[in-house]
Amino acid sequence: MFRKILAAILLLPALSVLASPEKDFDEFVSYFKDRFPNTPYEDYKNGVYSIDPSAREQWEAMEEFPPYELNVDRGEELFNQPFKNGNTYGSCFENDGVGVRQNYPYFDTNRNKVITLEGALNDCRVKNGEKPLSYFKGKELAHVSAYMAYTSRGNVFNVQIPNTEEALSAYEDGKRLYFTKKGQLNFSCADCHVYQTGTKLRADIPSPAIGHPTHFPVYRSGMGRLVTLHERFAGCLNRIRAKSFKGGSDELNNLEFFTTFMSNGLEVNGPGSRK
Questions:
Q1: In this structure, what is the dihedral angle of CA atoms 162, 101, 66, 41, given to the nearest 10 degrees?
Q2: Of the given ranges (12-16, 122-126, 269-273), which has the lowest mean pLDDT?
Q3: What is residue 18's predicted lDDT score, i.e. its pLDDT?
Q4: What pTM was estimated for this model as a whole?
Q5: C-alpha to C-alpha distances, 54 to 36, 48, 51, 262, nearest whole angstrom
Q6: How much is the mean pLDDT over the chain?
Q7: Which residues are catalytic?
């Protein structure tokens, strides 16, 4: 039934009456409750480890000596390092940038666009006369984002969607990108992370859609570095041989907007670690 409802929504994007984001959220949560009745909702912040007990044991052992510890330390250094004009990243954020990860992404009704944490960091740099940074390859942006996530652990996501045409359009665009099949392999994000989660796909169990943004950026042991959420999105698109998008693009911003709204009520627990 859930799949049919989503398919109907996607096949009729021009309808003026669509399911509200709140109804989408309720359907999403209900689907995963039925699929994994023994997984408490709050545990989805742990990604695939919320539904894979054997992998969870290895992950919990790894978290005793987290591989991202040096990245967080480096992120703190960069966060407090003055720009050429003497300001720091903290000057651009409420509470000096400490404990604010859960406030992103949000829809800026003045600019009519989704603002992610990494986007806000780059906006801060430009405002202070610095060049924006890449979302990819685990460099400075990922380190600073990891530090800010670390200071926000335990805070709860509560993404709000303003009742404006532009905000609802951004949400719908993100949802459409998530559920639409694409690429040479004709896969959607939902194929792996909704319909196939909990089952082996190649050698891995895909993580559930709920909770995806909570633990980013993630330290990928196989890559030996941090990966931002947008780099992960782009990597998935490349794997199915679909058109990818630049980090910070409207497409990926809107995708993050949708996936984070579907994770409302979960705690920030980034940065995370994955194999």
A1: -40
A2: 12-16
A3: 63
A4: 0.91
A5: 16, 11, 9, 26
A6: 92
A7: 236
E-strand stretches of 113-223:
113-115, 218-220
201 forms beta bridges with: 204
Same domain, 99 and 36: no
Q: Is residue 102 over pLDDT 50?
A: yes
Helix (H) or strand (E) holding 107: strand 106-108
Q: State the DSSP H helix or E strand holding residue 273, giving kind and residue range, or none if neither.
A: strand 272-274
Q: What is the DSSP string of 112-169?
A: TEEE-HHHHHHHHHHHTT-----SSTT-HHHHHHHHHHHTTTT-B------SSHHHHH
CA distance 268 to 256: 15
pLDDT surpasses 90 at 237: yes
Lowest mean pLDDT among 5-19, 55-69, 251-265: 5-19
In a domain, 244, yes or no: yes
Average pLDDT of the residues in 30-44: 96
SS (H, E, C) 213-247: HHHCCEEECCCCEEECHHHHHHHHHHHCCCCCCCC
Q: Give the domain extent around 77.
A: 69-150
As given in the structure block, the two tokens for residue 2 are 């859930």
Tokens of 140: 């400075």
Assign residue 22 a region (left: φ > 0; alpha: ψ between -120 and 50; beta: otherwise): alpha
154: left (phi over 0), alpha (psi -120 to 50) or beta: left
Shared domain check, 177 and 55: yes
Report DSSP state, residue 206: P
Asked whether residue 155 is assigned to any structural domain, the reply reads no
211 and 266 assigned to the same domain: yes
Structure tokens at 149: 């996530």
N residues, the chain: 275
The pLDDT tens digits of the residues spanning 133-151 come to: 999 987 899 999 999 999 9
What tokens were used for 67?
């591989």
Paired sense of beta strands 272-274 and 218-220, if any: parallel
Specify the CATH number for the domain of residue 81. Answer: 1.10.760.10
